[in-house]
Design goal:
The chain has ten helices and no strands. By secondary structure, it is mostly helical. The two termini are about 30 Å apart.
Length: about 200
């Protein structure tokens, strides 16, 4: 059972994340029909419904944080720009969280490439914008890249996160608020004992 946030003071990093989403989460999620915040909340909800750990739910909420940290336009992939948001988010997160949060986030783009390689039918599940970004991100993997991905300690978590990511693009889907999911950020910070800032 997860503790509630009633009468609790949020961690400073949690407050920082909430501020990012409040200030920039209303921007469009690429060329999808949802905002950055709506997409993040849908991923976190799918992770929560699947009974994922607090760290993986937090990773779900934060997986596209890199989109809130850069200044590229929403249609950057259509302009041939790979914003490398997974690396940007990974660098920001690794100074604050442990690997159970940072690595699934850092690997969620690689997980798309991996799934396109080992499950040919998976590509058919991708949205148009996701297919566009796939080519900028390297397309399918070589056998060596597949082996390296599978050997990574957090590859299974990254694949789960990727599948939730792909499903979390439903316009107007009701979800709990960002404050509801903030508890998982607090718990991930407490359990992984990452640096503060």
């Amino acid at each position: 059972m997860h503790p509630t946030r009633a009468n609790a003071t949020p961690h400073p990093v949690t407050e920082q994340v909430l501020r990012f989403f409040r200030e920039r989460g209303g921007s469009q999620y690429g060329q999808e029909a949802v905002t950055q915040l709506e997409h993040a909340l849908q991923v976190a909800l799918l992770a929560e419904q699947a009974g994922a750990s607090p760290s993986l739910i937090a990773a779900g909420l934060l997986h596209d944080l890199g989109h809130l940290l850069h200044n590229h336009p929403d249609d950057a992939p259509d302009q041939g720009i790979d914003d490398r948001h997974e690396e940007l988010a990974g660098r920001w997160l690794e100074r604050r969280f442990g690997s159970a949060v940072t690595e699934p986030v850092r690997l969620h783009v690689a997980a798309k490439r991996y799934l396109c390689t080992v499950e040919p039918e998976y590509r058919q599940l991708l949205s148009g914008p996701s297919l566009t970004s796939l080519e900028l991100q390297g397309g399918t993997m070589t056998p060596e890249e597949v082996a390296a991905f599978r050997a990574h300690e957090h590859s299974a978590a990254a694949v789960l996160l990727r599948r939730w990511d792909d499903a979390a693009k439903i316009p107007k889907l009701p979800t709990p608020s960002i404050e509801h999911f903030a508890r998982y950020i607090d718990q991930a910070l407490a359990s992984e004992a990452g640096p503060l800032l």
